[in-house]
């Protein structure tokens, strides 16, 4: 009996100028297109017009797409993505596209890690359970760098892409290698694949390729169905009376019902917040809700206190100024049981409103952590936010959060420890909660130097437990390239100084970024500007905050306006309307003077 035509997609993320590569790629395309509906998406920036013309002549029924034609990619151009590289953006756009357009098999090239979000989603159990994801191995970025004896140009982002490429090798359903020497390199690097085959061996048999991507056994993916386990939701609370009703309402309306909620008042001092806490205590007077009070001990100590008074097998931490999405707990639990991982973090959508979330709430930016990339994790929080789920027994073994006062990033430190100790952690590539972006939040007023010492501590204390390969990557892929990147950054900063010297310097924005830019520039600021009229007339870093209308009185040729805000696109339109020109009269300060990439912007 003839089988029905299947839906297949090939994602070409890199075009090798290699005759054998081109011949084999065309053979793959030909064999698949004979009996299947084939779509090809070009996610690379290379000139592929020649290849497109050859494919079109080979078969008129093949659908060809450029990633810039995909709606999901266009939408991302208009969204603020926090901490995501160009390759990451393409991977995320492809994941969204495939979530909406179902295929039986998707074949990704390895370069750039464009399969990453799709494979991660399948790995944690939120998508593609009936889709086979295959990696076409042509050579990773690290493989190429080692062959060419080159260091990374952009250490942080390149190291992340390298990790994502290798994650795809380890977690795809099948790997088909174009070149045998890369197979040998993978073995040398101890990168284990689920199922790996050489392309030449497959192509030796007629139509064998189609059989490989459809008819051999798929990996068994066990769908776990269990009784709902008790989940303890721990909410630390301090002077957040304005926000507490919203987060508790979102928890109460969550779709997963076997929960207990522990709200801990960490010694709130303002009368309004104390009264709100008492009101919520009366409103949620139920057996599975606990409202506890103690002397102020800071976030880490308060979260630990909540866990000590909980009974759940799983723990989820929720900050009192955030808002849970309806299926947050359900998805966390489903993915934890599907993967049998020890801890899962997730994406979030940030917002700036002082009240709750509505259908018109604007996403200020998305936070998209990658996963347990220890070689980058001492500089950049790639692990996730404190709003994570963890197995209680693992939380206890790791030792909970450290409890120093006047420090932040205790969640980041905990996730580093968890990973160094060998527990399994991953990220759910989906926004499960709303993250309230507050300019005056605790983490924004804490000294970075002390915080980074906190982040380095588990690397030092647990050095003997870190794999030697990770240490090698830290030195080779990060430390040496960062030195050269620092020299390049200083060169760019000097060029910027030349442009603004002799002009009146005005900073648009009064948040964390403005403070950092002021400190880095080390030059006289005339005044600050902010769109929040509540700040007009107030002082910031000993300078007055003024209305943007004040800029209309300035001569464009005599000022340099440095925008220090995540809302750069909106402010840019505002300044253009006043007659100022980008890169002449105003600049994006957050790009010129990059803040430490550790920031989660809270």
Structure description:
With 602 residues, the protein is of the alpha/beta class. It folds into 3 domains: 7-214, 3-Layer(aba) Sandwich (Rossmann fold), CATH 3.40.50.2000; 231-466, Spore Coat Polysaccharide Biosynthesis Protein SpsA, Chain A (Alpha-Beta Complex), CATH 3.90.550; 502-592, NAD(P)-binding Rossmann-like Domain (Rossmann fold). It contains 21 helices and 23 strands. The strands form 3 sheets. Strands 4, 9, 10, 11, 12, 13, 14, 15, 16 and 17 form a 10-stranded mixed β-sheet that branches. A 7-stranded parallel β-sheet has the order 3-2-1-5-6-7-8, with helices on both faces. It has a 6-stranded mixed β-sheet with strand order 20-21-19-18-22-23. Strand 1, helix 1 (19-35) and strand 2 form a beta-alpha-beta unit. Helix 3 crosses helix 4, helix 5 crosses helix 7 (155-171) and helix 16 (410-420) runs parallel beside helix 17 (448-461). The chain is globular, with a radius of gyration of 26 Å. Keywords: Glycosyltransferase, Transferase. It holds the Pfam family Glycos_transf_2. It is an enzyme of class 2 (transferase).
